[in-house]
Amino acid sequence: EFGSEKLAAAVLRHRDKTSQAIIEAVLAEVNQWCHGIQADDKVLMVMKVNSDGTVTRSDSNLPKPELT
């Protein structure tokens, strides 16, 4: 199992990238770790909250979240 610790570390390594680039990089690490053998579905969604409070998402077709 790739596990939550490896997932968190992978996200941290790529945190300066765009949401979509984070997804691509993390999934590439997962694929490398499992040698391309997929035993289960892989789903990953990234939503970044930037230092100025703006939000970027991995899919621009998703509805914009309401921030309060």
Content-based structural category:
mainly alpha
Shape: elongated
Helix/strand order, N-terminal first? HHEE
Compute the number of strand runs.
2
What gyration radius follows from the Cα positions, in whole Å? 13 Å
Whole-Å distance between the termini?
A: 37 Å
How would you sum up this structure, described in words?
The protein is mainly alpha-helical and 68 residues long. It is 38% helix and 9% strand. It has helices at 3-13, 19-33, and strands spanning 47-49, 55-57. Strands 1-2 form a two-stranded antiparallel sheet. The longest helix is centred in the middle third of the chain and has 15 residues, at 19-33. The termini are far apart.
Question: What characteristics describe this protein?
Answer:
2 strands, mainly alpha, 68 residues, 38% helix
SSE diagram, text form:
Elements: H1 3-13, H2 19-33, E1 47-49, E2 55-57
Antiparallel strand pairs: 1-2
Summarize the structure.
This protein is mostly helical. The protein is built from two helices and two strands, in the order H-H-E-E.
